[in-house]
Design brief:
Order of helices and strands: EEEEE
Strand content: 15-25%
Length: 78
């Protein structure tokens, strides 16, 4: 019998973790016990300068302070 293509493979169910929530869109950033969905941001010197939420595209510095929303960079102080 021929093997069928695995185009309909079962996908792992993502487990929500209330400890790893985006402060803007409230979506879970939890992927598994070892990894997160956060997107790392690096500068020209390849130093980590922050992270971005893959759901709402809000960007944060390494202290989790908001630095941009959907491409708007350099938010002023409130």
């Amino acid at each position: 019998m021929d093997k069928q293509p695995q185009s309909h493979m079962q996908q792992k169910k993502k487990l929500a973790n209330s400890d790893d929530i985006c402060p803007i869109c409230k979506e879970s950033l939890y992927l598994d016990s070892e990894y997160t969905q956060r997107v790392g941001l690096i500068d020209d010197d390849e130093e980590v300068i922050g992270w971005m939420c893959p759901h709402c595209e809000a960007s944060f510095d390494t202290d989790d302070k908001l630095t941009g929303l959907k491409g708007y960079i350099g938010l002023g102080e409130a």
